[in-house]
Amino acid sequence: MEIEVLENEKDKLKIRVHDNTTVLNLVNENLWKQKGVDLTAVTVEHPYLSYPVITVKSKTAKKALLDAIAQIDTDTKDLRKKIQAKLK
Fold this sequence. Notes:
Layout: E1 2-8, E2 12-18, H1 21-32, E3 37-43, E4 53-58, H2 61-86
Antiparallel strand pairs: 1-2, 2-4, 3-4
Helix pairs in contact: 1-2
């Protein structure tokens, strides 16, 4: 998965991910749960000719993005444990 940082400021990030939108939509959903996030959006200029871009606006955009990704990691590990327990 290739990543391009298009904009990297304290209060705004814009990142293009060379993958489908599924992962970015999950990150976007978790960003809205982060305190202090003013805007988060995933955009795709063309479904076949471009890659998705996630935009984050917050007083601490980098921290919000990293916290959202960390929360996804925690949630998926918890889900895995619960599924493993049920499948034994």
